[in-house]
Amino acid sequence: MDLAAERIDRLHDLARAAAADEEADRARYYVRLARRVAERNRLTLPREFRRFTCDRCDAYLRPGANARVRLRDGHVVIACDCGAHARYPYEE
């Protein structure tokens, strides 16, 4: 694994920990930093990272705390507190 991918994984862990400690600004900083590292090194972010971050406000999403998760016909809808919605397919 290259150095940038390792750093992205570490920043993901830090963002999750900061969000768990209710430090939203610190978690948002880690998310933005990880996205910048991925962009500069032309890497795609891991699926788990993409699914648990808001594309609009860069918040680390925690279902029940700052995100609402709903199941619809064949997809999951995740709504952030900022009003952004993300939809992901799933198979029943």
Q: Could you explain the architecture of this structure?
A:
It is a single chain. With 92 residues, this protein is α+β, with helices and mostly antiparallel strands. It has one domain (3-89). It is 43% helix and 18% strand. The chain contains three helices and three strands. The chain has helices at 3-20, 24-40, 47-51, and strands spanning 67-72, 75-80, 85-89. A hairpin with a 2-residue loop joins β1 (67-72) and β2. The radius of gyration is 13 Å and the shape is globular.
Quick gist of this model?
The chain is α+β, with helices and mostly antiparallel strands. It is about 45% helix and about 20% strand.
Spatial extent as radius of gyration:
13 Å
Fraction in helix: 40-55%
Task: Describe the sheet with the most strands.
Answer: 3 strands, antiparallel
Shape descriptor reads globular
Task: Find the structural class using helix and strand composition.
Answer: alpha+beta
Mean pLDDT across all amino acids: 95
Low-confidence stretches: none
- End-to-end span in angstroms? 33 Å
Attribute tags:
92 residues, globular, single chain, three-stranded antiparallel sheet, alpha+beta
